[in-house]
UniProtKB/TrEMBL annotation:
Keyword vocabulary terms for this entry: DNA-binding, Nucleus, Transcription, Transcription regulation
Ranges where the BZIP domain occurs: 27-90
Pfam families: bZIP_1
Subcellular location: Nucleus
Protein name: BZIP domain-containing protein
Location of the region described as Disordered in the Swiss-Prot/TrEMBL record: 1-49
Gene3D superfamilies: 1.20.5.170
Highest taxon listed in the record's lineage: Eukaryota
High-level lineage: Eukaryota, Viridiplantae, Streptophyta, Embryophyta, Tracheophyta
Major localization class: nucleus
Example of a GO biological process term: positive regulation of DNA-templated transcription
PANTHER family: BZIP TRANSCRIPTION FACTOR (PTHR45764:SF50), BZIP TRANSCRIPTION FACTOR 44 (PTHR45764)
Length: 145
């Protein structure tokens, strides 16, 4: 407050001769206003502190959630690398078997052109690659989140 407001005038003096008590009432209103302002400022600081604590807790929660998500991503990347490696092996095996089949088809064609009777027996094997209609692995399950 400015110094002009602090100085008391003859009208607001506690020793008011008129006996109306105008100075006392003004001082009381000023004191009540100051107390109200202090209380309001205290509540404002408390709300600000509460909000800060809430934000700090949210940051901690989001950091934990981020770490868990990154861990899941790493697990998915490892699984993807494993499946990708298995697919590469299967593609190579497919290429090899396709080459063999083409070669055998050529031999069979030559034999048939030569007039040889060709009897192809049913193959009994434990190689799942030679039985593509019977997959040797369980069906793929969708990845759950």
């Amino acid at each position: 407050m400015s110094s002009s407001r602090r100085s008391s005038s003859p009208d607001s003096n506690n020793t008011d001769v008129s006996g109306g008590g105008v100075g006392i009432a003004a001082d009381e209103r000023k004191r009540k206003r100051m107390l109200s302002n202090r209380e309001s400022a205290r509540r404002s600081r408390a709300r600000k502190q509460q909000r800060l604590e809430e934000l700090v807790a949210e940051v901690a929660r989001l950091q934990a959630e981020n770490a868990a998500t990154q861990s899941r991503i790493a697990a998915f990347e490892r699984e993807f690398a494993k499946v990708d490696g298995e697919n590469a092996v299967l593609r190579a095996r497919h290429g090899e078997l396709a080459g063999r089949l083409e070669s055998l088809g050529g031999v069979l064609e030559v034999l048939q052109m030569a007039g040889a009777a060709v009897d192809i027996p049913e193959m009994v094997t434990d190689d799942p690659m030679l039985r593509p209609w019977q997959p040797s692995f369980p069906p793929m399950q969708p990845i759950g989140f």
